[in-house]
Design a protein that fits this description.
The chain is an alpha+beta fold and about 675 residues long. The strands form nine sheets. A nine-stranded mixed β-sheet has the order 14-13-10-11-12-15-23-21-20, sandwiched between helices. It has an eight-stranded antiparallel barrel with strand order 25-26-27-28-29-30-31-32. Strands 3-2-1-4-5 form a five-stranded parallel β-sheet. Helix 4 packs antiparallel against helix 5 (about 105-115) and helix 12 runs antiparallel to helix 13. The chain is globular, with a radius of gyration of 27 Å.
């Protein structure tokens, strides 16, 4: 076993690798950028080396600096994690040339499987079923358009060197192909330095099922069963589970054997994943009719590897370290077993209700459910109900330079139903304040009829959009009651011992009434709290026939507030950020703004005629120029943030007065990109 390794990554995967290394008695070296100087992965490693600027191209993609850091600190091997350099053939070769062990497959395997077109040809020779498509080297746009027309729409354009859903566009009709190709190529060159693409038939109602494989230097190769990763948004995974629901033993064996054959074809060593697209010609209730087609092989550890660990009781990072240090695989195929069911939810800094726009900001509140983390226990301990893999702490900032994932929440149960129940409860207990996240969206996805009944395909989110987006599970009455209760608890905490400091509305006669004003869901609302004789409270929320009234009873608990109002009894946790109260309940979470009328006296009305950047990033292009007339919803500009492109559209009809930036410029959140004069004023 190695004595010291360098981890060429950041965030949760760097922390994850460091935890297993520590358990095995292996020293670790972290590398970090300017933005990550105080990051968690730096703190958990034994040593740390600064390697450059905040942008990945200035740090985590500078492999020569990483190799220098490894040699300077005496590391014997480099673990690349996932993303960044994990599938970079040149980096793997450079490690070998420097006398360092690359904890991953041989460079030749990365080369063979790294380019989608090349891997398709390799699998075709091995007679692995392929989806109809064009995988040629000729990248002439006119040729690609003709090939797409021949395949038949819809088609999928994919970056040949891509992964993680980047550099991928679905095209429904011929007239949209050229624009989608241009966008795909731009994103591919920015993410991978290679704009080559392939075009494939877009399989309808597909499932995404992948097989975890592992090989060693002695010729042994096994598959550690499958993961279903069908629930996706923008071609990126949202929920992953193992084993795949509805998988028959016969299909599992066939897919596993095909995955091992693919790995053996390139003399694979280490952890890898063979991804298949699975067609369901007989519908959701006919798994025996499922057909699988090779998509690609990821020559690294996957983000979702914890669900495989949960059902096998194995530590895959430990296997990586043992195999890379020259040991044989710890187990053979007949030794492997599936125990129970596991589901992973990717918690990301993003706004699902705004097309999953990435979010940045500080984790002012970062409260997790009762769980096991890889710092506290062996991640492969059997019987762990809830596990969280995270590379951040409360107070840390989510920057625009890297992927938007905050943490991975993994649950395990004896059955899928038990795992689903644990997932919902764990997500309900995950409280994040300071930036937008997808936590509540994940709860809604897991609660959909499609997911609960395992009617899975990659279109699940669009199919269930009516119950997934722009939902308000808490409602004004309960949100107001929670905000009022928290206000009263905060006031009581300031009371002294003398009776004149009491804040409980004590009076000897009459009724004391107190007015609250709120903003909720874009609407103004009022509430009246009556302090009644005997100390009881009566709350009225709203006016007229829509008013909700009743006794308000609450008490402080360790986990928040025990609350009763208007026939509802629930728990609530309220976190104040300025005037905004973030309210978390078992029903879901919401925000309500308590208005201080004196503080806002004299403020001007909201400005108009401006269009601002919704997040920090780079201006990729403008689709308009000064003087152009535009219609509401028309694309105006393209920005890049967190390695993804985002189109900014006109909020209303108008005329472009002035462009304030040029393509390539970096802009901050809220920066005015262009001036737009409303149509009636133009």
């Amino acid at each position: 076993m190695f004595k010291k390794i360098l981890i060429a990554n950041r965030g949760e995967i760097a922390c994850r690798v460091a935890a297993t290394a520590k358990r095995l008695g292996v020293k670790t070296v972290a590398v970090y950028s300017d933005a990550d100087a105080n990051a968690k992965h730096v703190a958990v490693c034994d040593e740390a080396v600064h390697i450059g600027g905040s942008a990945p191209k200035d740090s985590y993609l500078r492999w020569e600096r990483i190799i220098e850091a490894a040699k300077a600190t005496g590391a014997q091997a480099i673990h690349p994690g996932y993303g960044f350099l994990s599938e970079n053939e040149d980096f793997a070769k450079a490690c070998a040339n420097a006398g360092l062990v690359f904890i991953g497959p041989p460079a030749s395997a990365i080369n063979a499987m790294g380019l989608k077109a090349e891997s398709k040809r390799l699998m075709e020779q091995a007679q692995v079923p392929l989806v109809p498509g064009y995988h040629g080297a000729d990248q002439d746009p006119a040729l690609l358009q003709r090939e797409a027309d021949l395949i038949g729409y819809p088609v999928l354009i994919k970056a040949s060197a891509g992964g993680g859903g980047k550099g991928m566009r679905a095209v429904d009709k011929a007239e949209d192909f050229a624009a989608a190709l241009d966008s795909c190529k731009r994103e591919a060159i920015n993410s991978f330095g290679d704009d080559a693409v392939l075009v494939e038939k877009y399989v309808q109602r597909p499932r995404h099922i992948e097989i975890q494989v592992f090989g060693d230097t002695y010729g042994n190769c096994v598959y550690l069963f499958e993961r279903d990763c069908s629930v996706q948004r923008r071609h990126q995974k949202v929920l992953e589970e193992a084993p795949a629901p509805g998988m028959t033993p016969e299909l599992r064996a066939r897919m596993g054997e095909a995955a091992v054959a693919a790995a053996r074809a390139v003399n694979y060593v280490g952890a890898g994943t063979v991804e298949f697209i699975v067609e369901q010609p007989g519908g959701y209730d006919a798994p025996e009719q499922m057909k699988f087609y090779f998509m690609e092989m990821n020559t690294r550890l996957q983000v979702e590897h914890p669900v495989t660990e949960a059902i096998t009781g194995l530590d895959l990072v430990e296997w990586q370290l043992r195999v890379a240090s020259g040991e044989p695989l710890p187990l053979q195929q007949d030794d492997l077993r599936i125990t129970g069911h596991a589901i992973e939810a990717r918690i990301c800094a993003e706004n699902p209700d705004n097309n999953f726009l990435p979010a940045t900001g500080a984790l002012n509140v970062y409260a997790l459910p009762e769980c096991v983390t890889f710092e506290r226990a062996n991640v492969s301990d059997t019987g762990v109900a809830v596990r969280v893999d995270s590379g951040v702490r409360q107070g840390d900032a989510i920057s625009p330079f890297y992927d938007s994932m905050v943490a991975k929440l993994i649950v395990h149960g004896d059955t899928r139903e038990q795992a689903l129940a644990r997932l919902d409860e764990a997500l309900a207990q995950t409280h994040i304040v300071g930036l937008a996240t997808n936590v509540q969206f994940l709860r809604r996805v897991a609660r959909t009829d499609s997911f609960a009944r395992a009617q899975l395909d990659t279109a699940l989110i669009p199919r269930e959009q009516a119950v997934l987006f722009h939902q308000e599970p808490v409602g004004l009455p309960l949100a107001s009651a929670a905000a009022v209760a928290q206000t009263l608890l905060n006031e009581r905490a300031t009371e002294g011992v003398d009776p004149f400091s009491r804040r409980d509305g004590f009076h000897t006669h009459g009724v004391v009434q107190r007015r609250f004003e709120f903003e909720f869901g874009g609407e103004h609302a009022k509430a009246w709290l009556n302090y009644e004789r005997g100390g009881s409270l009566h709350l009225t929320v709203g006016e007229g026939e829509h008013a909700v009234a009743g006794p308000l009873v609450f008490s402080a608990k360790a986990e928040g507030i025990e609350l009763q109002f208007a026939g509802q009894r629930t728990r609530a946790a309220v976190y104040a950020q300025g005037e905004v109260d973030h309210v978390f309940t078992p029903l879901g979470a919401t925000q309500i703004t308590a208005i201080d009328l004196l503080a806002h006296a004299g403020e001007a009305a909201a400005e108009g005629g401006r269009l601002t950047a919704p997040m920090p990033g780079k201006v990729v292009s403008f689709a308009v120029k000064a003087g152009d007339k535009v219609a509401k919803g028309q694309p105006l500009a393209v920005m890049e943030a967190m390695k993804m492109e985002h189109t900014i559209a006109a909020p209303a009809d108008g005329v472009v007065q002035e462009l304030l930036y040029a393509p390539g410029d970096q802009v901050t959140e809220g920066a005015e990109l262009l001036k737009l004069v409303a149509a009636e004023k133009a």
